[in-house]
Please model this.
Amino acid sequence: MYLPEHYEFFCPVKINSGNRALEQLSSELDALNARKPLVIAKKDASERGLVDVIIDAFKDSGIAIGIFDGVPTAPDLKLIKELFNIYRDRGYDAVIAVGGGTVADTAKVLNIAVSGKPEDIEGCAGENMIKRPLKPLIIAPTLAGTGYEMSKYAFFDGRDYASHFLMPHLAVIDPRMTIPEGAVTTAATTLTALTHAVEAYSGSDKNPLADAYAYTAIQLIMEHLVNVIRDQRDRNGRLSLANAHAMAGCAFSNVAPGVAHKLGKVMGDVCHLPPGLCMGMLLPHILDKQMSEGGYHIPDLLLPLAGFDAYASTAENLRARRAVDILRNLLKDLSAASGGAILRIWKDAQVSEDTLQDIARRAVGNGASFDMDGCVEILKKAMEGR
Amino acid sequence: MDMPGYYEFCCRVRIISGHDAMEKIPDTLAQLNAGRPMIVTDKGVVGAGLIDIVVNAISNGVNIGAIADDVPPDSDLRIVNSLARLYREKGCDSLIAIGGGSVMDTAKGINIVVSEEADDLMKFSGANTLKRALRPLIAIPTTAGTGSEVTLVAVVKDHERHLKMLFVSYFLLPNIAIIDSRMTLTLPPAITAATGMDALSHAVEAYTCLAKNPLSDAHALAAIRLISDNLLKVTVNPGDKNGRLGMSSAATLAGIAFGNSMVGMVHTLGHSVGSVCGVPHGACMAILLPYGLEYNMHKNGHLTAELLLPLAGALVYAATPREERADKVIALIRRMNQELYEATGGRHARFFKEALDRDGKEMVPKEKLPDIAETALRDGSIFYNPEDLDYNDFLMVLEAAWEGKPLDTCLIRKG
Model:
């Protein structure tokens, strides 16, 4: 088994998953020496009843929670200032974010402010600029999150943040929160998680601890994603996918982001597509190219992708090819299971030669490990491959 | 994969692994706002020359406040209190624990006293009585086995009042575990073998007992693979640096796995043999592991069968018919014990009647087996074992493990 001569790993996120996981929150807060949490959410989380689930979970706890359900789509530092005042004036001592995306980003940046002062935020942008542990942060994810919410990253008001101190102390994955999100959203968020896990597991700076998270995430996604897209009522499948998202986020925080992540993110941005769908579409082509380059661990992917028996019965020199084929077939199955909805999004992506060049340039600028030509080649293949 | 109805998983320890991982200590201590650590260790570690290696590695940038090397093999409240006094006298601001389980327990105990300004440690015993972060604690294991660098438990004994205090809290987790190949390079073959089998038993029981979850599974599988790759290699060739690193990572992975999934009857019986006869924990685990798998076979044979892949590799797994895989796993673990027995010139015991103390005296006289079975009945770790055991069942397993005969499957009560 591959073991690097040097590695570091850190994952402060505790995972509580399953039935009535939210009811454990009061004792978890107690263990974090907190007793008055501020719950933050978007309006639509309230409208969909998710905030009520949390209120209900605290019903018999004797803990009075605060609720702020007005996080907008594009929050800014003014909102942080407002939330900081609420947190300080009313004596809150922990933050619970309902769902991922901008709510989680808001919670992370708010946590910088309440652990010091709002003026700290600017200086904490960038890589490893936070110097000490922050206040308790808990995230109760939905399937609309990609696992990014569990990661060390935050993107807020035009600035990037990266620090292990931003990772939540606790991920509460409760089936009442992982309600159906629709085929396209679920596929997009899960393909992001899958890309993160696959790139962590097959990349050149993998380590056995990050592997354990990535491995489990890949396994869970392969077992459940197509079923959930086919039938959104699959409650256990949805819970399993939410687990996979969280695990992928933990792995993602411990390895350098891969080229599929970087290229897919830019492509999503430029073409106004869900980044996860772009990553999913690019991933097989990228692995294909990496297979011939050496330094990657693509044959190993077959184990979590296909299971023990298929892995063991495939000759060593065929494993990488088979792993990539499985990922390609997954995309086909997702299209079929969504009644073509996912495929139609790819088909409708009108990408001109100029746009390809633009995407490639920006991805290389973001540190993608392929050069311009390599990125363009992948983008073209992905376009043709649809 | 079965998703449990409910599970929790957590390992907040930052792990740094490498041939010169200890050189990272000054920076990591500084990040924790500390720079004057007390080193907690024992005479064995000092005698092996390991403290010098640590001191050399960290003296650039760290101002060592005190070195306490008198931790006894069994953690002791009086030592915890006296070392806590030393910590304060010397103005220390952090702890570096270098050694095995007792050193880790002692350092965790000291940390409670100095962080909580506690004069009575008893007040903090039990689960979740700690409410905030303690002083920075760095754990440097010197064996590849116990996994106590990543567990949230500490045991401190009050020998005067005959009390065993158990502390359970996420705040007891070390901030950092340092896995450095230099710390296990001089570990003698017999201890290498026993502690390595200890790690294997953690991983195997984590995977096959009742409180497993998807993440503990993944950690267990990786640990088993690394042990299979490296244990015999480093027992035969102690200076194999990469092999040592592999075993240390395996022990950490296995520690995380069982710390998040609990264990079963192998540990129940192992604790009991240890407490009645003083046999080292790892030696007990090595002997009992195949028996635990045999006993539970009718409940978890499908899980045991899966372990053939990490244990023997893809070719053997694919070539072995599904219904034979679990038996093959048990046979392979017995073969590992046999190979380790040969590689250590007979010092790695395969069964209890072979377990000898330093003077060559038998450690587990056969007439002690009833005592051991009695003790096992009072050990809580049996709770997560797939099949139940009463006194007669324990005794039956012990007799077979004493003699070195496979279990007579007809004698297993299948509940």
